[in-house]
Amino acid sequence: MKEFAVKLEILAEQLLDLLSDNLGLEKGYLKKALCGSRGPTFGTKVANYPPCPKPDLVKGLRAHTDAGGIILLLQDDKVSGLQLLKDGKWVDVPPMRHSIVVNLGDQIEVITNGKYKSVEHRVIAQTNGTRMSIASFYNPGSDAVIYPAPSLLEHKAEEEEGGKQEYPKFVFEDYMKLYAALKFQAKEP
To answer: Domain named Fe2OG dioxygenase: which ranges (predicted)?
Structure first.
């Protein structure tokens, strides 16, 4: 597991560089934005979803967006359950052998000023077997100051009149306190 986690952290940083490049940001911009004074945090969570005889009576893992940066999910290769919200409809993410599902969290949405969105997702209960998943989270350091990349605000100003900043500046730890208090409510406010 330690070796797996180290490789996933490297993959997360490579993906952050690709996202930075795609946005026209300097290499390493997103990683640096997530650092804070002590560097980013990285953790892995293993989840087990047992079969449920009456899935219509159970909510499973509630609909939510992830609060952090970038999430890499190794999901079960046989039992489904992960869904994402697309155009107002829940869409199944099929189990895929040897695949990693990449999810962007709220902090990437803020830093990109909404160019990339955090994805609302959930896990629904299944009757056809136990579902396992391994989620690895590359998150900001607790004291990281999160705000939209200035160059993306400039680009937006060129594309539209006003090019406004859609998101406030905040410290990640403060965001997490608010997230924990309001996690069952809509994120937009």
So the answer is: 40-140
